[in-house]
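Example complex used in Figure S2.
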Amino acid sequence: MNKNFKRVKQSKGIVEYKHSKNDLSILLLENDNSPLATFMITYHVGSRNEAIGYTGSTHLLEHLMFKGSKKFNKKNNNAIWDVLQNAGALLNATTWFDRTNYFELVPSEHLEKAVEIEADRMRNAFIKEEDKNSEMTVVTNEFERGENDPLESLDKNIWSTAYQAHPYHHSTIGWRTDIENVSINRLKSFYDTFYWPNNATVTVIGDFDTKKILKLIDKYFGKIKKSPHEIPIMYTQEPVQEGPRRFEIKRSGELPIIGIAHKTPNGLDNDTYGLYVLDRILSYGKSSRFYKKFIDSGKAVDISISYYPLLDNGLFTTYLFAPKNSNLEVFENEILDEYESIKKNGVSQEELNRVKSQIFSQTNYSRDGSYSVASNLNEAIAIGDWTFYTTFLDKINKINKEEIQKIANKYLFQDNSTTGFFTPKKT
Amino acid sequence: MQISNKIVQSEPVNGLNFYSLNTGVNNFVSFKGSFLGGKLFNKSNKLVPELLVEMLDKGTKKRDKFKVANILENVGAKINFSHGNYRVYFSGQCLTKDISMIISLIAEQLIEPMFNEKDLKSVKKRNISELINLKNDTRGQGMISFLQNLYPKNHPNRPDQIDKEIIEIEKLSIEDIILFHKECYGLGNMEICVVGDVDHSKVHKNLFESFNNWKTSSLSLKNISNSLKSKKRTGKSDIIYIPDKSSADLIIGHGIGIDNNHKDYFNIMIGHFILGGNFSSRLMSTIREKEGLTYGIQSSVSGVDNGNDGYWNIWGTFSPKDINKAKKLIFKQLEIWSQKGISQKELEQKKNTICGMYKVSFDRTLGVVARILDTLHRNKPLSFIEEYPQLINDIQLKDVNNSIEKYYSKEKCVIISSGTVK
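Predicted assembly (849 residues):
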């Protein structure tokens, strides 16, 4: 093996390495089902690392990362989008609360180009004033598109009401005036603080040879030094909530929507697995409780639960679209009645078995294609342990119905709740 | 990448065609199938075929809807039924061990569905609410107006007004659903494709046993007239006003009068790909990258399947205050594109992009299964899967530029702005 890499651990075929000079983490999974591979780099920085005045900076910076770097730029006639898209690559980047990731799904023969580009822009991205000015209006339009959607508006307000101190208070896109006014120096400083090999994890999945890819990663990333500073820790914690919170958005629209959220623990907490199962018992598929109660009966238009593990605490939120002119309080009571039923009576073994089977199958499906595996790993990396992805099924299998009842009682109580109404305004 | 010679095909029986492809994935398969029965086959009320599809998961004569759901969910499988203008589709993923059971269940749902008044009432109510919600969708409303300006009544590419669809839903009865199923569903034009960890002979046996006694459908694509052509009109500009919207949608385009079997199709398709097909296209480079006016803008050719005369359109989102500036800049790009044409370098780059994207679309079994069915629906041999990149590589610069000139007319453009714009 390449002497510049230490093998750290292995789980379900995925092997973790660490570059011995700059602490870059690498996850590899060889799979030659098709002549394709996904290269992904995940930076451990997201909107949780922002504060008032520069909310949305992580996302705006992600946009600027496509504007050129020392080797790959318009002047050299090899801009990042052009080079990769002309090779047929599927490429993009996403920003979320806890991470920013850049990825390329490429025919395997172009894998080296993806490695070279990501290594170059890790420390040599331009981050220029003129690019920020044009990209700021692009991101503003992205913000505006989101605001067009009543559900997205309601979701933003749920998070900002539930979280007051912790930076999950603001969404990844940020507040409009912050997007419009953040300075280029702030963005540069953000880049210089977080974009280092010791704050990143590279994932390669698909048709490649481990020895060769490690050689390529060493060739392009090996020369980048680790950060000269410690990566700052975000230490703000949300104070304990001491009572239910409520709000209402009144805006033009057609259907009323209700969101009921309850705070949940950090993603690596053992209760995450029980909450995941609870979500599915309530809302997944036609056998679920909510489907039978609200959709099959024709009472509601749509109902879903939004729950995903995060690095810090999260939210377990039920969203329901009601028919036009409905009284949302009636739906609120019916949703809460279902919570109370589980708190009091628990769930059945049949429900638990069904959800476990669903998760088992879906874990198999999630290995369909190199991008799918990389994408799942990306979220596990973001919450602090990539083996969350590989051990997930084993942990789910250990859940019993008593734990589900206990978890429902532990988190789904009134003082831990935030309820929002989207009420269509008559125009 | 050679795929077609690895696809196993069964001898068709009563118009039931089965294809399978074994790939390297373990323990699961992706499947997709289709047959004629889409909304164009019921002229009096297009909503009947649509709602029928939504009733297919509401139980069978042997099992009620919750038993069906339990069977699927207990093994983590899902069957999605959907519809298009022409076809009804079913698709999903399941573990390899369950594929025979899933095939039998699909057959039961299609052959002996349980249609009842109560379920229909609930489906109708939900569909009406979804349509009401669509009135608030700037893109959806913009596209309805755009296509209605392009196509005459009853053309396959023309959507109905939302209020008309609501009335049609309110009118339809369980008897309409039962009658359409009785008269139109059946074998004769069904394809099923299974990709992944699949044993062809095992699935074949189960499939042909499950559908063995189903009647033959009377439907044929020949029943659907596509003699209606897009309106021969000059340009038009319209505003669809929707209050309280931060972002507005702009749609510009017109009919092209050809389908995807026409000799010019690939030329005009790649011409639009160069104009607005991906991030490095002309519109994204200028309107987004340089001017910073939009999060996304694209240009493409659509509505060209099954012999229909299609259209091209540009779609982008803008801050309402920028909509007029965006319009001017888009037309400036259209003028450069149509008058100066594209360059050899651009053409070669985009050929590489399209061929690479095509290869990448085989990353997942779901992508492979969709590609195989798409080839069959275009009446192409399976070898077309490998021939497609060659067809792209054979495209000539002069033909693309001639097609751009031939199929673009500023005077014919329909321009729709949708959102809080005046």
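Chain B is about 45% helix and 15% strand. The mean pLDDT of chain B is 94.
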